Amino acid sequence: MEGMELWKEQVEVWRNQLEQWLHQAIEYSHQIPPTQLYIAIAVLVVTTLLLLSIRLLKRTTSNTIVLTGLTGSGKTILFYQLRDGSSHLGAVTSMETNEGTFLLHSESSKKGKIKPVHLCDVPGHSRLRTKLDEVLSQAAGIVFVVDALEFLPNCHLASE
Hints:
Number of domains: 2
Structural class: alpha/beta
CATH topology of the largest domain: Rossmann fold
Helix content: 40-55%
Shape: elongated
Number of helices: 6
Strand content: 5-15%
């Protein structure tokens, strides 16, 4: 019970301090000319509305997933597997970015609200890294694909 009484006393001290600050703020606001006060309130309201509208307009979330990695690591095969479930066997060397917006093959059997994913398969060759820079600004996520069998011999390339 003593703890509760101490807590009530502390709350009372805070309430008295808050009332004192409120009284000082009211006195100070009476000293300010009304036009200055109205202009300050208007600037505050306009700034708040502007910041809220900017935030609401920028709320679009990206649904882009970028597949990147070394050459021959299986990015394009993974892209086709996610897109339609097909298993393309063998190496597929890409010189252009594969892009598509679709429901993932594994999600197509589920019910309910399922959002499509924009998937970008970026070529892994070092001369085509500029294509990666183009899509990274829109990416919500990055998947770095590594072929475990080919990784150790090409470890210095992965670090670049």
